[in-house]
Amino acid sequence: xxxxxxxxxxxxxxxxxxxxxxxxxxxxxxxxxxxxxxxxxxxxxxxxxxxxxxxxxxxxxxxxxx
Length: 66
Prior knowledge:
It is a single chain. By secondary structure, the chain is an all-alpha fold. It has a domain at 21-56. It is built from two helices and no strands. Helix 1 (3-29) packs antiparallel against helix 2 (34-48). The mean pLDDT is 77.
């Protein structure tokens, strides 16, 4: 087996694992609060290749009731 074939096989396996991880993260995102849901959303955008959006980043820190 050539190096290229080995690398292609390994790349295919890793893409499958990454896709599986993304599916688990999507399911987990529905069960989490806002902070972790937002982080998971950013991870999924990186994994799935979704374009960057400024609206996805919230710089205000929650301060509780005022």
